[in-house]
Amino acid sequence: MNETIYNRIAMLRAERGISRRQLAEELGVHYQTIGYLERGKYNPSLYLALRIARYFEVGVEVIFSTEPFPRLGERSA
Predict the structure, then answer these.
(1) What is the rounded average pLDDT of the residues 4-28?
(2) Is residue 61 classed exposed, middle or buried when 0-12, 13-18 and 19+ CB atoms within 10 A define those classes?
(3) Which helix (H) or strand (E) segment is 72 a member of?
(4) How many Cα atoms within 13 Å fall on the side-chain side of residue 49?
(5) Helical ranges in the chain per DSSP H
(6) pLDDT per residue as tens digits for the range 19-64
């Protein structure tokens, strides 16, 4: 079973002009944790996933998925 969790953290950070370090400080985690999350090297705990969603003011499913997100400009089937 593939346990990869895909995310849009980097995209959301870029849209808001927030660095990894700034996001990490807001969430109380090490800035490298944000990098690991963005690269799919680390899956967040449910608690951290919910805190990230709350920070960006979106539902957790907007940020995290068990399926790859479509590329920008692609239509979903």
Answers:
(1) 96
(2) exposed
(3) none
(4) 16
(5) 9-16, 20-27, 31-38, 46-56, 60-63
(6) 999 999 999 999 999 999 999 999 999 999 999 999 999 999 999 9
